[in-house]
Amino acid sequence: MTLQSTYSAMFPAVILMARFGEAIMELRELAGYEKQGEVAVASTKLSEEYPELFQAFSQQWLSRIEADSAGDAIKKARPMMIAALAYLLKLDSAKFYDRVGIAIAPVPLRERGATSAFPNGSPIRPVVTPMEVTVEIPRELQDLIDQYGEQPGFEALKNHKSVQILAVRRAYMGEEDGLQTVEDWRDYFLDMRRWLPK
User: Fold this and answer.
1) Rounded to whole angstroms, how far apart are CA atoms 62 and 159?
2) Which of 81, 111, 161, 169 has the fewest CB atoms found within 10 Å of its own CB?
């Protein structure tokens, strides 16, 4: 056994996987999109077919995401845009986290819990009786309510159930949810508004 083979056996090669934006660029190419513009066009078609599930994104937006070396832009991205990107890259939320390193919500049409394929509710009955759970309201979300609650188009912020629905994101994802400012929460609210009770 040579010195080189002994060293190789003791210290096997470590393959470093790309993370964050670099990983998204690699995944885009693996999915068959050679150029950023191609996947942006595909996102437009996807959002037109499923406007309640996905939001289209531009080539410029994707360029910023792929240039993200720390994960901050990905964390702050609009959920419906990230969902569209993950779907087009053939990823569910678990694979997105494993490969990119950022937790995202379940991806519609790739994960059963994230699709409206069952209009009458899940075909599997729950084994326990549903119960009401109160979620703590993040300070930035409360600031959004105080600043925008009386403005037209923001009526849902005065509905307790709507606020609880919004706050679940922080409860589920913790401080890593990417919503750190009032503006972040406003953008998230605007994405979710169509489904919120008023």
Assistant:
1) 34
2) 161
H-assigned helices in 51-150:
59-66, 72-76, 79-88, 93-100, 139-148
Give per-residue pLDDT as tens, 69-128.
999 999 999 999 999 999 999 999 999 999 999 998 889 988 875 543 333 444 444 455
Q: Is the Cβ–Cβ distance between 54 and 87 less than 8 Å?
A: yes
Per-residue tokens: 86: 């993950």
The enclosing H or E element of 43 equals helix 36-49
Q: Whole-model pTM?
A: 0.54
Q: Determine contact, residues 140/119, Cβ cutoff 8 Å.
A: no
Q: Domain-by-domain residue ranges, the chain? A: 20-114, 139-195
Question: Residue written as tokens 């939001």?
Answer: 55
In single-letter form, the type of residue at position 151 comes to Q
pLDDT given for residue 114 in this prediction: 55
| pLDDT tens by residue, 107-117 | 998 887 554 33
For range 29-44, the mean pLDDT: 94
For CA atoms 31, 36, 39, 43, the dihedral sign is: positive
